[in-house]
Amino acid sequence: MKKDELEIIILGTIMKMAKARDKQTHDFMLQLQSEDFQGMTQLVFLHMQKSMDRNESLTRASLQASCDDSELRLFIGDWAQSPFSSHNLQFYIDSLRTINKINSYQDMAQNILDIIQTKPATPNKMVEILEGASTPSYMLKDINAGTTAKQAFNEFVDYLMDESPLEIEKTGFDNLDMLLQDEGQGMAKGSLVGVVGATKNGKSALAGSIFANRLEQNTMSLCFTMEISVREFLINIIAQKTKTNRGEWKKKKATDQAYTRLTAMAGENTSPDTFIVYDNSDITLSFIVQQARLKARKMPVKTILVDYLTLIKVDTQKNESSFSMWGRVVTTLRHLAKELDCIIILVSQVNRNVANRADKRPQVNDIRDTSQLQYDCHLLLGTFVDQEIDQFFVDQHGKQMEVKILLNRNGGAGLTCYFNFEQGNLVEKGFREGAAYVENAKNFEAQPEQFQNYDDRQQDFGCPTNF
Prior knowledge:
The protein is elongated. The protein has a nine-stranded mixed sheet with strand order 5-4-6-7-3-8-9-10-11, sandwiched between helices. The protein is an alpha/beta fold and 467 residues long. 49% of the residues lie in helices and 13% in strands. The protein has helices at 3-16, 22-30, 39-53, 60-65, 70-80, 90-118, 123-132, 137-140, 149-161, 174-183, 203-213, 230-242, 246-250, 256-266, 285-296, 322-340, 372-376, 391-397, 431-446, 454-460; strands at 168-169, 187-188, 192-197, 220-225, 275-278, 301-307, 343-349, 379-384, 400-408, 416-422, 425-429.
């Protein structure tokens, strides 16, 4: 960063500070000397000192009004409008804190109203809610202690000079993580990850499997599911973690080997205390935010899964369209991910008109109900299972799911990875193997209809069993 750019940050910040901060500004300027600046920058600094001596507020308008030199007046205006003057500095930090504080109390009030109106609230429950819905912990330390402009400036410079890479968060699937890291920075903490797809195309299976893969001790993971029960969600996690058939657990006919794997799973770094599942049918947006903040005060939150978007209960604001309402939900969840420094996985449907296309693989513009997901998501994954493949081919080679990176704020997009998809469980496949499955399925469909039964087809068709 050039010296004149640093000067612009300093002076631009001082000029844009509110009148109530003049004392703090004065203390900051006392630590600076006019010789620290050169040329026109030094003249601006001296002019600001004179304005402070006259007890004037250091705003762009007041500084320009008290300036006799036309060239200096123009220079002050250019500085105050500089893009460097508002990034990560005092007035910007103050405004964010104010907004977040207001939002936190609005969420608290809404959550209390929801409980009073829908169900009896015990005294203990009310205490828990009041404690959890108060100002977020990351703001508590700043209530009685402000950050000086110099501190904010130094922190910003440290941030610019820090060349260490972003901390990468993983999905737990090697093939998908490899794509994300090869093409960019993978997932970063504080990201909103969207998983979209048509019905029975594996979007919930992918989201739930990523959630299961990320469970670990000393962190908390939360799942808000409005489609399935806690028991069913637990079975899905157990089946995915132990690589067993979830149907065995549902019918209570799991093999000894499956129980052995379950015992091993219990002894790993995953315990029942590391995640909480909410399966209420009337989960509200404020409830999700409140519970996440409450748990974050006790233990760092690693992952939050919301399955899925349009099943969240949301109060419509006056003259608000459903498109805008769901967009507001997405934006709120993005802010929550940033606030708690965690990964939030949000599941959503695609438009029904996708079924009318020849290629039914989801695209960025196919998201149902709101386009805000493509604007607010840091990572958007699209799932696809070809439902039109001949059943005989599926019987021979299994079902395959494709996961395409539709959007990636931290890197490239457009690449696809492949999974075996049986009973909702996902097992990674190599790119060549997955691409060969797609190609061979097309070739199989293109064969003349000369086979009368499966036995004839199995004997005559030249598609290998394993790709």
